[in-house]
Amino acid sequence: MKLAAYFPIYHKLAPEEQYLLESSVLKRRVAAGTIMHNGADDCVGLFIISSGQLRAYILSDEGKEITLYRLFERDICLFSASCIMSSIQFDITIEAEKDSQLWIIPPDIYKQLMESSAVVAGYTNQIMATRFSEVMWLMEQIMWKSFDKRLAAFLLEESLLEQSNFLRLTHEKIANHLGTAREVVTRMLRYFQSEQMVHLTRGEIEITNRQKLEALGQ
Which domain holds residue 198? Predict the structure, then answer.
């Protein structure tokens, strides 16, 4: 499909702005595991996802990861063009979790559109507000919700995304998503298994009692 079908404000742009976008946008395919953006000094451009799944996360000085949010089909990633916004002072890494296709609007082009179009400027503020709300929600989860509840909610979310009760996830990968140590994940999963909520095999987690997980995750 064309860019116009994936960029929500495309048809609100002036013809010359649409032409500028179409003539400068890049189409890219990336394999799962590819690092698309790495820190504030890496200004790739605005990502518009046409298929696949990306993950935005931050990395502590000790090398511990925590997922801030995920990006799916039709989502927009603004922080990959963070150099156009002087107010952003933190480093975010963006990784392809699955094989993905996306458009990339070069940062200088998007900055030009922001400065010339009230529609683009307003939409940019909307994206930033949405991401800020997601990060604030994550902070509330970390500060006020116990780890067993967070893990239960994560497993249910993964099951919904994959449309399966069988999740091919390592304990290390879960720890990276939730910002904790692998050993903590392992202990809690073993507890879940003792409570017959999941069944563990090497590299795979089977959800065996969705109702108990849902009750725990609330």
Answer: 145-217
* C-alpha dist (Å) from residue 142 to 101, 113, 164, 175: 32, 37, 26, 13
* Distance from C-alpha of 68 to C-alpha of 63, rounded to nearest angstrom: 15
Residues in the chain, how many? 218
Alpha-carbon torsion (190, 183, 65, 136), positive or negative: positive
Question: Mean per-residue pLDDT for 136-143?
Answer: 83
CB distance 110 to 84 below 8 Å: yes
Of 87 and 51, more confident: 51
DSSP designation for 196: T
Nearest Cα to Cα of residue 28 among 137, 108, 103, 78 = 103
163: Cβ–Cβ under 8 A, 6 or more apart, which residues? none
Residue 42 · residue 20 · CB < 8 Å: no
Q: What is the token pair recorded at 183?
A: 């050993």
The CA distance from 204 to 5, in Å, is 37
What are the beta bridge partners of residue 54? 71, 96
Q: pLDDT grade, residue 53 (50/70/90)? A: very high
> Within this chain, do residues 62 and 35 fall inside the same structural domain, yes or no?
yes
Cβ pair 210, 156 in contact under 8 A = yes
pTM of the model: 0.78
Q: What CATH number corresponds to the domain at position 56?
A: 2.60.120.10
